[in-house]
Amino acid sequence: MLSDIELAQFQRDGYLIVRNVADDETLVAMSAYVDEALSPLTAPVEFEADVQYPGAPLNRDAPGGATPRRLLNAYTRDKVFRDWARSPAITKRVAKLLSSRQLVLSQNHHNCIMTKHPGYSSATSWHQDIRYWSFDKPELVNAWLAIGEEREANGCMAVLPGSHKLSLDRGRLDSALFLRTDIKANQALLDTQVTVALNPGDVLFFDCNVFHAAGRNRTDRIKKSLVFTYHDSSNRPIPATRSAMAPGIAIDLQ
Question: What CATH number does residue 83 fall under?
Answer without folding.
Answer: 2.60.120.620
